Amino acid sequence: MKKILTNKSLIAFLSGLLLCTGLYSVDLGLHLYPAYDLTIKNFLNEKNAFSIDAGIDIAPVTIRERDKLFFSLDFTYTGIPLSNFPLQNAFDGTLGIGYKCRINDRFSAFAELRGGLWVYTPSKSFDVSSLSGLLFGARAGAEYNISPYFSAAAFVGFKSFYSKPAPLINDIQIGAGIKYNLSRSLSSSNAILIEKNEVEPLFPVFYSHYSENPFGTLSFVNNEENDIYNVEVSVFVDSYMTAPYIVYTNPHIKRGEEFEASLCSMFNDNILDLLQPKSSDIKIIVSYYSLGQKLSITKDFPLIILSRNSMTWEDDRRAAAFVSGKDSTVQRFARLVKGAVKNNLRSDIPQNIQYAAALFGALKAFGINYVVDPSSAFTDNTGTAAVDFLQFPYQTLLYHGGDCDDLTILNCSLLEALGIETAFITVPGHIYMAFDSGLPVEKAASVRKEYYIESEDKLWVPLEITLSQDTFSLAWSYGAREWKKAGKEALLIPLKEAWSIYKPISVHGSDVAIDIPSAETLIKYFKEARYY
User: Fold this and answer.
1) CA-to-CA distance for 27 and 14, rounded, in angstroms?
2) 76 pairs with which residues across the strands?
3) Host H or E run for residue 478
């Protein structure tokens, strides 16, 4: 247990040291180089020795993209075996300067000059006191990168244990060893740089839309000193996703190459519980293979998640996500109205139009009112990225009112609950609705065309839902007049088309208790309806 704690403490200490000294931006490595020493000159008249060199390499300067100018601090033990005598010991410490040339992803060549001090500590069998002096040397070799952290090296070198009147030892070294990239192992955060990020606020109502439509982009740079392979970028937002979602893959990215990922996500419906905006984090996970080893980097970015009622009007079709004929409250209201009036339907009027009139009268009896919200008006926000507040159908019923977009959403939801297709109508500064009359296009010649919109092989009835406390016939005629007045600026958006992009949702808590007018009241208002 003490050993584990010691190792953790050492790693924490080294990480803190690197952070404080700013060495995460340089290569800091540890090396161990055993060597066999071929003695050229040895005052002990022996022709061989061995040495073990342990040291630290610091490469603060990069040249020609990935060549390195480096400095080294080495501590070396040299063992000198003598016949019939104990092993003789020499120690030295040197500082070095060198140049490493990166040939390709795996191979490098290096050369360095070294200088320092040596100490010879003879055994008691020799009547010689300790000796010391200056040391000069050079080393050249090659490295093979086994992984991003480890490399193997082979080298030849020369060392001179200088002393007067003659050097203690001059030898040629032949060795091999291993190097550990300490800075790379303690921090890999700069291996994949994020050059630019554009992350938009999230709208919970579009949570399913985001699985294929991005809410932001990130630009990356492969900052590894080698090519990388099988690159994957994933995103994860805690509490609102069950697992990371892969948004980008690439089999091969070259060193220094940029790549861009569009941020999509597979959110769960927990995100629909947000009644107020929330600050969160999005985790960006980049995994890849570097020099045969799988690596992963995680970065956090701030993310704003808006309330479930939030929306912008850059695309009017977005409001379709709020229209749902499957909400319990909406279905209960629509079915009770249909059940109350179905035995009083006329044979000379299409059923779709009569059920629309019945629902219009029911909402009037229920007390639905058109209420302008000065801080959230379609007139001010249409076509902009300004965040608007839209009510779900059950909220408009619960509050007994809403503005033009709220009433459009409610009326479309009620008619869709009865299986009647609906559409948005947008004219400059305003949104209202239309529904499928049920009449075939072939019947257009037999009706008053000025009260219908012919589109999508259907005859649509435009209905100005803001006249919620007036008559059905006035709402119909007024809706037709607005369509004609707007001319080419008027747009009809069938909900079926909009739902292919912005899927309808049902939110938690939408099943609320409301006092629906009695059957007698519903029939009374229905019979008062007038048609064209």
Assistant:
1) 14
2) 53, 92
3) helix 472-486
